[in-house]
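Below is one such protein, fold included:
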Amino acid sequence: MAERPARRVVDPVTKDGYVLEFEDTFDGDTLDESRWLPYYLPHWSSREATAARYRIGDGTLRLLIEEDQQPWSPEFDGGIRVSSLQTGLFSGPLGSNVGQLRFRPGLAVREEQDDVRLYTPHHGLFEMRAKAIDDPRCMVALWMIGYEDTPERSAEICICEIFGRDVKPGRAAVGMGLHPWTDPAVREEFAAESVAVDAREFHVYAAEWTAEHVAFFVDHQLVKVVEQAPDYPMQFMLNIYEFPDDPSAPAPARPYPKEFTVDYVRGYRPARRHTPGPSG
């Protein structure tokens, strides 16, 4: 684990300087759709094709990949299957290339969507308690993307990204950092960090996002600090993927359904509210 700088980085236990503003502990048996949209980038496909499969019970969310589940966008993303929740949605008219997460050239809006902002913070402290899966064809993640109401507001803060192939007894490679996508003000700064945890058990993954840095934590221990930060509203993306077309992957290590189990997701705003400048 990294040493905590003497200056600015938050104490993730006390959360001094932050106030809780978003929390889902997944109580009850239904998804709170005032917090989450149960689709994955539906503008590049459709709501029907990208609808998440999940179960809620016993105080947890289980995002699922099921055996009969179809790829979310065969046109643009091949055989990848995903179940995902997100807290915002922005896209342009049918046939345009305007939309969140332009992950490859040639994308076009296949189904028009209403613009939605359920939770789109601008700086804060964010954490999730969850357990991953060691299936070599799967990946689970909590990340943030720019709301992208202008093309440059597109960077990603990856709080945690865990491939099943990288989950070992007592250790896991946890991806964390920034991807610029089309934001010229952000540079690529992402790596899979080796962390001494059994990711198949519950752990807390967190990030503090300020105007100057993004700090990444696992179980309240600082892992690394990135000395740059996006400067516009961003939304959560919470998901499990399966990559069935990967010829290098061995046979699935786990039967269906594949499960990503989440205990809670929380977002804290700075106690002194951010005053947006020209970019936000």
Remarks:
- The CA atoms of residues 175 and 271 lie 29 Å apart.
